[in-house]
């Protein structure tokens, strides 16, 4: 029996190169959750086969900036000259439907969400060590040495922000990390702040 | 990889008749935890085969009262003229060994622990409905009607105290409830407040 019928907003974040995407994919393949993605908004042009409202909401730069100014973006970032972000209405709609909305975003975006959504769950994916992260950033790249140094510096800054999260999960093994995240989602649903209303109703407790 | 190597104190509680003991037994039979009991202290006489320090620490009434007065009992209760309680040293020793110490205790005892152990995890086992609890209390008993009425009144008071707990888990099915508790234990280990120290060490973050 579920005392918490509302949805959750789960923010999965961590430094570049930590393997957030791989953990997220493993998580979605597992059973025992009601996780959904929220469709992001972008100003980049749709690629062949991409459908508006499925891969992304494709909007103009002016429309995107209007959304930012009207408080309609939960978080956003600019990358290679294009905006990418999460529309607030989309997330709220899914949460109200009882869905577990997962955002896999950069540390900077997560901090933006934290200011707006008090009830969201913030999970920081950590590397097993700083060397492991560096090696991953180096191995990844067709990048020049300069760009790798930049990314390592950025990662260094990002790993210092873990303290702002509710949970820290080490990505030592993808399956293990995904398992822990599932446990966190189950536990969060049982939190008294999320269950007490339905509990009082169920047990006919007068306030 | 475990960032939290310390133990946990998990307090499992709930109204009389809710099936705390059954959930606790199911939990101990499951895998994926490091749960241990803490040996309680009592003033009742040992029964045949009971060993001091195994089933209970058997002490005199004076010794028990001394322990209470010296702040050495984490919680205690008097039942049918005998004291029963949890020695604080025992619990601290197990936590320092990295164990997950489970206390299955009455609501009153749990509130005593709450005052002393800020870091403990409080899980309230709830019945699926008040009628289900009443039926269980009635079925259970060789008790007189009077005593059943007393227990129902007590249970009614106890179910109102769920708000003081961190989590509420409905005992609709024992396996389901035990599963949720395991998820809570895993999630609690990943909490930033328990992991940040080791995390900073691991990633060589200077404070």
How would you characterize the overall build of this protein?
2 copies of one chain form a homodimer. Chain A has 207 residues and is α/β, with parallel strands linked by helices. The first copy, chain A, has 2 domains: 1-34 and 98-207, Rossmann fold, CATH 3.40.50; 39-97, Guanylate Kinase phosphate binding domain (2-Layer Sandwich). The first copy, chain A, is 44% helix and 21% strand. Chain A is built from 8 helices and 9 strands. Chain A has helices at 20-29, 61-69, 88-96, 107-116, 130-140, 145-159, 174-190, 192-202, and strands at residues 8-13, 35-37, 40-42, 56-58, 73-79, 82-87, 100-104, 121-126, 167-170. In chain A, α1 (20-29) packs across α7 (174-190) and α5 packs antiparallel against α6 (145-159). Chain A is globular. The model of chain A has no long low-confidence stretch (mean pLDDT 92). The A-B interface holds A 1, 3, 123-124, 126-130, 159-160, 162-163, 165-170, 172, 176, 179-180, 182-184, 186-188, 190-192, 195-196, 199, 202-205 and B 1, 3, 124, 126-130, 159-160, 162-163, 165-170, 172, 176, 179-180, 182-184, 186-188, 190-192, 195-196, 199, 202-205.
């Amino acid at each position: 029996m579920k005392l918490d019928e509302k949805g959750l907003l789960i923010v999965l974040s961590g430094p570049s190169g930590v393997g957030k995407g791989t953990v997220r994919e493993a998580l979605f393949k597992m059973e025992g959750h009601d996780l959904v993605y929220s469709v992001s908004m972008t100003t980049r042009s749709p690629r062949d086969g991409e459908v508006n409202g499925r891969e992304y909401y494709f909007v103009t730069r002016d429309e995107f900036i209007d959304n930012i100014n009207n408080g309609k973006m939960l978080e956003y970032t600019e990358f290679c000259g294009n905006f990418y972000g999460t529309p607030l209405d989309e997330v709220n709609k899914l949460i109200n439907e009882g869905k577990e909305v997962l955002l896999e975003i950069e540390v900077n975006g997560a901090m933006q969400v934290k200011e707006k959504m008090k009830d969201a769950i913030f999970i920081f994916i950590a590397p097993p060590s700083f060397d492991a992260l560096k090696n991953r950033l180096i191995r990844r790249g067709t990048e020049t040495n300069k760009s790798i140094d930049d990314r390592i510096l950025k990662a260094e800054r990002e790993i210092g922000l873990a303290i702002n999260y509710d949970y820290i999960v080490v990505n030592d093994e993808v399956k293990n990390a995904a398992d822990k995240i599932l446990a966190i989602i189950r536990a969060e649903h049982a939190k008294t702040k999320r269950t007490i209303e339905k509990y009082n109703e169920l047990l006919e407790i007068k306030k």
